[in-house]
Design a protein that fits this description.
about 10% strand, single chain, two-stranded antiparallel sheet, about 160 residues, globular, mainly alpha
Length: about 160
């Protein structure tokens, strides 16, 4: 039987459908906790450059698909367009990316600027340092298992659509 929570004494209790033990085994919650903690390590390393890990990922992926539409870049990063747009704002204001009209006239293309290339080149050593730190904290075996499990998870969920 699940636990109930009373949010407001004047309202009916809500059946959470699970107790604390079950909630702690929630796959989504566990993955998000781990992702947030890992992201904190990278964000700490990138902070002196004025970057967050999601912003670094945008810049790095633009090296591969410069000029991609916002939709294409969001798909590459496995984020929704709203999240990507939120990350593009500071990058655009800093002059590191440029948004241009897309080839179809409706979409927007995202381009890495020369200044963006310079900040990305400056950020690579910080990212590499964070990668070394994460591997040291987790150990090579767990770090490799985590990467493999993440890749397998994305592939399995992509297949299920």
């Amino acid at each position: 039987m699940g636990k109930t929570a009373i949010i407001d004494a004047s309202k009916e209790p809500i059946d959470l459908g699970a107790g604390p033990a079950e909630l702690n085994r929630c796959t989504a919650a566990a993955v998000r906790r781990a992702a947030r903690r890992v992201t904190q390590v990278y964000d700490e390393a990138l902070k002196p450059l004025g970057l967050t890990l999601p912003q670094y990922s945008v810049l790095a992926n633009l090296l591969l698909i410069d000029g991609a539409s916002v939709t294409e870049l969001a798909a590459q990063l496995v984020v929704d367009r709203t999240t990507l747009t939120r990350n593009l704002g500071p990058l655009s204001r800093s002059g590191w990316v440029r948004l241009e009209p897309g080839a179809d006239g409706r979409s927007r293309a995202v381009r890495l600027t020369d200044t963006g290339r310079l900040i990305l080149a400056s950020a690579v050593p910080a990212w590499q340092g964070a990668e070394v730190r994460i591997r040291a904290m987790l150990g090579e075996t767990l770090a490799g298992d985590l990467r493999a499990a993440s890749d397998q998870t994305v592939a399995a969920l992509d297949r299920e659509g």
